[in-house]
Amino acid sequence: MSDLILKMSDVDFSYDEIKVLDGFSMEVYKGEVFVIAGSNESGKSSILKLCVGLLEPNRGEVILKGVNIYESTNVDIRGLRLDIGYLFQHPALLSNMTVYDNVALPLRYHTNLSEDDIRERVEEKLNLLGIIKESKVFPASLSYNKRRLSGIARAIIMNPELLIFDEPAAGLDPIGYRTVVDFIKRLKNDFKKTMLITVNSATGAMAFGDRVGILKNGRFVFTGSPDDLRRSEDLYVKGLFF
Q: Which strands sit side by side in the sheet containing 219-224, from one edge to the other?
């Protein structure tokens, strides 16, 4: 069986008259961390949403675990999504639920686990991220760091095969940034998770990526390892370092 988890081939995508992706192609393999880096409004978030069927391309194919999601039924797509953990650019926590209930929600909705089993899983994830003390707190009372960590906990609660994180460390203070980066490294090294992650800077991409794609004008102008990225002489690529 192929280790190819996700493939986008020759994808065009536009918002009305604004072209976002132009013949975009990408492959993500089992067990790797693929990082997409690019400036704001370069199309990074659109790529992630296309990968899970939240947007539809104007042209091209998106193959997820061997299934063309734009030739599949809604039932098939929902089944595929159960094995994906998705962190939006903003954590998208439900304001009328505590942190605990936000993280428990996918388990309650998609599984037949008992409340005792759900509690065990939720508390395990909250402990991993250092936010167990916030379990009974509502999102509005949390710092941005803790809201982001809560969103990550919810994204991983189903133990999905593929994790998709949209700028997971954006807007965090230095402590929050290190916490998120260290946790992503743990997901990579200890749990062997396949991850597709967007970041703004090439510096951020090198923190945890196995491969990096630099996005410009709707397609990659660079793909390679962090070492290849460090050696690149492309002015746009070099401009993404800080």
A: 84-87, 162-166, 194-199, 33-37, 211-216, 219-224
